[in-house]
Amino acid sequence: MDPLSSPWAAVSVVVLALFAGIAALTLLRQRDRIVRQAAELAGDVETLNDRLWALADSEEHYRSLIEAQGDLIVRRDGARIVYANGAYAALLGLGEAEIVGSLAQPRLVACRPALALDGGARVFDECLATPEGERWISWVETVVPVTLGRTVLQRVGRDITARIAGEQELVEARARAEGANEAKSRFLATVSHEFRTPLNGILGMADLLGDTGLDPEQATYVRALRTSGEALLGLVDDILDFAKVEAGKLELANERFDLGLLVETVSELMAPRAQAKGIELAAHLAPGLPTHLVGDRDRLRQILLNLVGNAIKFTDDGGVGIRIGRDAGLIAIEVADTGPGIPEDRRQAIFEEFEQADNSAARRHEGTGLGLAIVRRLAVLMGGSVGVEARQGGGSLFRVSLPLPVAVEAAVPALPDWCSKHVLVVSDAPFGPGFLRETIAAAGGIATLAADAEEAMARLRGGVSYDAALVDQAIGRDAAIALAGEIRAAGLVDCLIMLSPLERRQFGSPREAGFTGFLVKPVRARSLYERLSPRPAPVAPVVEASSVHPQRASRQRLSVLVAEDNEINALLATRTLERFNCAPVWARDGREALAAIEAGLNGAGPSFDLVLLDIRMPELDGLAVARAVRTMERDRVGPDQVPLPLVAVSANVAEGDRAAALAAGMNDCLAKPLDRAALQRWLDRVALPGAFRLNAPSPLRRSFVAIL
Ligand code: ADP
Fold first, then answer.
1. Alpha-carbon distances, residue 305 vs 243, 269, 402 (angstroms)
2. Among 5, 96, 250, 337, which has the highest number of CB atoms less than 10 A from its own CB?
3. What number does the ligand 1 atom closest to the CA of 340 have?
């Protein structure tokens, strides 16, 4: 049988055809899937391509931004550069392509200390040698992670060469300006110092001329000469002081000084000016203030003189009050006046140099505008401050606060017990009565103030029983005398008249005028307490120490050597000494002075009671003379002998000069122009009977030296 014609064959063909159909169908399906996937892949590739473009674009964008900024960027793995931008490559003079993978480093010229920032970054400036010269780069250095936990060190730097050069220029310009300023101050100091010498001569000669029996017209001219000279000297002194403070040359002394004495000196010096203007000058130390402080007495006096001088200069009516107290551990100085006051908008400026409250050409008062600048600088130098405010009732109130320590063993003056003592104070002065009230209250007493005789009478009749009355002669001489009669009649124990030193001379006898005594203005607390405290027996009126010179009249003729190279100064000193009944001997330089002293010591020439030594002299200066004299004394004279009093005289008593004079063996250092009072004090000291002749030593002379 034909196999193909069997039924089995037909079935097989059908099955085969079926399989073939299925296979074809499957293939068709797979082709469709592949076509679909191919289309999807093509889409993905498209997207990736777009992203790649975007990334490349973005990278280009940032790269151009970085390059445009000009910052230097470098990344190093160890010392090897793994990335550097064009700016960094240019810094090294390399191309971008050659720098990556290299160990290239710029040469370090200088660097500044690094600063660590939060987050571990460091900031530092380096000066690097580059092909274009030295450049300063300010770096920020950070550690940045890269792949697989690895890190590289990245530095981003900015060229700050121009800034550094600017800073350097500023430093140099500042140094130049400071140098010029110092030179200016040195120049001013030198010039004003040179001005002083001839000026002292003019003033001294005017003084001497004034004592030669001139007619009234001539005396007026001499007074004018003296006043103008003094004004000029004041200006020169201001400039000199200012220059010294400016040049930082001012050394502050740190010595124990008597506060009361200081205020008295200032009042005494300034009182004539106040009197000449017919205004009050009152001074007051707050009760409980220690007697002695530690600081620079001379500079403090200068502060006071400037403030008080200004106050008197600008006040035409009323007066000036100086009050010293303590406030929060500081010494509080107040100088108040009843003058025109200072406009609020000028109260800061006037402490600047060359500034005046009224800068207009029409201003009435002379001055350099340096006084307050000096005051402020001195106060600041002492660790304190100064300011001005309007005084209640009109005028100005200058306040200075200084941290001056209380001296060891300083006493607080004892107060009398004036419990229930009632004192009537008759005065119309603006400051004195208030100060007296404070002084009286501190002792426990009560002060009642009356501005004139009428008011005083009303008070006396008012039923209060007073123990004492203080009457200011400023209410009028006749009114004061008439009032004294009423006060006596009212049965008061004490009735004192208050007089200024000038009035004291003119007033006549206070007792004859009906008073029990007098007080000199500005009234010191001590004098008041002494005068009004119960005394065992009636005492003579208090005579202020400054108005008496016990040794002057009876002094023996002292022999004084004046060593001075300037002829005019020498003439001045010798004439002044002659006035004081001394026998002066002039030596033109240090060598001549030493020879004269040596002759005196050897008995080959006159011996001297006192030697005034100019510090600056040709041949041998004053210090060298003093040292030689002290050596001579040690070698030739026994240990019991008391040294010859040697007093330095200097045109410019800076603290350094004084210290050098004392170190050279001198006993004191006086300023030129020779202050008559200071000279007189020395003469009084050496004139103590039989005490100071070198060849006739005595215990007195020893004690005198001990107190120097
Ligand atoms: P000078 O007095 O030489 O002008 P100062 O520095 O001492 O310079 O004072 C500066 C200015 O401050 C003065 O010119 C004046 O205008 C003002 N002044 C100072 N003290 C007083 C005062 N007590 N009353 C009014 N004005 C004053």
1. 18, 8, 16
2. 337
3. 25
